[in-house]
Write a structure and sequence with these properties.
Helix content is 30%, strand content 22%. With 303 residues, the protein is of the alpha/beta class. Bound molecules: iron/sulfur cluster.
Length: 303
């Protein structure tokens, strides 16, 4: 696996989990809004050995509870499933970020039970997907990945693989049992259990590509029971197209209210804005949005 970035601590990349993030090199698409264009192009010269990541997880066990494998597109990497398995053996939760182009690899990882969470981008309605990714997009392939994620999100009964992690080994050692079989690093066996992952679908939204109509089409693709998030586009040095525009805080607030009327598990992620004060100017402190606050949708805005 080619890892070109290693963020040792994040509170946002893996919902509810203190996690590190690795960024793999290379992607088959060139999304105009991509925040990691050098990773997308595969030109990032940095290399982080897998062993360094595993050693970090071992060292920080109990403090870092998860790892997010992001990119680039991780499913293009050789050895992805094995790397995730090594992370599971340390005893951390594993999240995969994917563009959905490889249901084969996602299935392989799910069957190996090395994933706890999958986040998949659903960027546009399928008919116009190629416009945003600047490449070929196969609707059947993407839908297959979506269906697979939803299937494992509902849960399937499996012979659960019990990864004997370092905590278990230490517990064995503590019982003066360091020479026993339990102290060896190996699978501890199997048992019948419901294997169920957490998941989300998400869309990075830009004024040039997304309006309410496109979002409603995407909602049909992800289905009524799937967690779904809108994320605002933000320009940075690393995006391909700096002419793109995200939505304003007020527009996001309105969009959040609207989408909740359309889908019971949808919202705008990271919604923050400053409260208006008497004269219409904004307070300095950013405050987290009070979800459900009454807003008025402006049809003329076209989103
Ligand atoms: S946003 Fe994701 S799918 Fe698109 S180019 Fe970047 S890494 Fe690839």
């Amino acid at each position: 696996m080619i890892i070109s970035g290693f963020d040792k601590l994040s509170l946002v990349n893996f919902p509810g989990v203190v996690a590190c993030t690795v960024f793999t090199n290379g992607c088959q698409w060139r999304c105009s809004f991509c925040q990691n264009s050098t990773l997308s192009l595969g030109t990032d010269p940095n290399r982080v050995p897998e062993d360094e990541v595993i050693a970090y997880l071992e060292k920080r066990k109990g403090l870092v509870d998860g790892i997010c494998i992001s990119g680039g597109e991780p499913t293009l990497q050789h050895g992805l499933t094995e790397f995730a398995r090594r992370c599971k053996e340390v005893g951390v939760r594993v999240k995969l970020d994917t563009n959905g182009t490889s249901p084969r690899v996602v299935r392989e990882m799910l069957e190996a039970q090395v994933l706890d969470y999958i986040a998949m981008d659903v960027k546009m309605p399928f008919e116009t997907y190629s416009k945003i990714v600047n490449g070929m997009a196969d609707a059947e392939v993407l839908q297959e990945t979506i269906n697979l994620i939803k299937e494992y999100g509902r849960g399937i009964e499996v012979e659960k693989i019990l990864y004997e992690n370092s905590y278990a080994r230490e517990a064995a050692d503590a019982k003066n049992d360091s020479n026993s079989e339990k102290s060896e690093k190996k699978s501890a066996g199997t048992e019948k259990e419901l294997y169920k992952i957490d998941y989300e679908f998400r869309t990075t939204i830009m004024k040039e590509f997304h309006d309410k109509k496109t979002i409603e089409e995407i909602l049909k693709i992800v289905g009524p029971d799937s967690p779904y998030y809108l994320q605002n586009f933000e320009d940075s040095d690393y995006v391909f197209d700096h002419s793109l525009n995200g939505f304003s805080d007020d527009e996001l607030k309105e969009l959040d209210t609207w989408i909740k009327t359309k889908h019971k598990h949808a919202s705008v992620r990271g919604l923050k804005w400053t409260d208006r004060i008497g004269d219409g100017t904004r307070a300095d402190d950013e405050k987290v949005c009070k979800i459900g606050e009454t807003t008025t949708f402006n049809e003329d805005r076209g989103y």
